[in-house]
């Protein structure tokens, strides 16, 4: 084999091997409804026996259409969470939902979302939202903020 052909082959192989083909493994089961009464301790909830799962495990009459009372809150907001504690069918799915009601000038104090992304929409009123970066190349913390109106959407990476 000529040296140039050999070099070309090596370069081609290097190109091939540098292309990683990776993905998350497919889930092993369609769902893992939380068994909150299991004595087994794991990071999360173990799965309820799939044969005993029913539609109620995926349902919550949460009345999210109803406004919440914001008068008792010191920060002027009331968060209604729908996570695995309220809806066992959410176990392992990596998704949850919240309704937040704000009093005029109310707020949701600064907080973090380790390894989680939030997307938000405004159903009524106007909301000032934003997030601050923590890992800018120039060691600064940059604020990304917007004033949202009814129907607007904002994502918090
Ligand atoms: C949130 O609203 C609900 C329903 O209006 C009320 O029962 C609850 O006390 C409120 N929570 C706070 C922290 O104000």
From TrEMBL:
| GO MF annotations, alphabetized | manganese ion binding
The protein's location, in the record's own words, is: Secreted, Extracellular space, Apoplast
What is one cellular component GO term in this UniProt entry? Answer: apoplast
All copies of the Cupin type-1 domain together span 59-157
Family of the protein in this entry: Belongs to the germin family.
Output the lineage of the source organism. Eukaryota, Viridiplantae, Streptophyta, Embryophyta, Tracheophyta
The reply to whether Secreted figures as a keyword in the UniProt entry is yes
Tell me which residues bind Mn(2+).
111, 113, 118
Organism, as annotated = Zea mays
Per UniProt, which keywords does this protein have? Apoplast, Disulfide bond, Manganese, Metal-binding, Secreted, Signal
Predominant location: secreted
Which N-terminal residues, if any, form the signal peptide?
1-22
Question: Where does this protein hold oxalate?
Answer: 108, 113, 118
Give the InterPro entries listed for this entry.
Cupin_1, Germin, Germin_Mn-BS, RmlC-like_jellyroll, RmlC_Cupin_sf
Q: What is this protein called?
A: Germin-like protein
User: Has keyword Cell cycle?
Assistant: no
One Pfam family hit: Cupin_1
Give the disulfide map.
Answer: 32-47
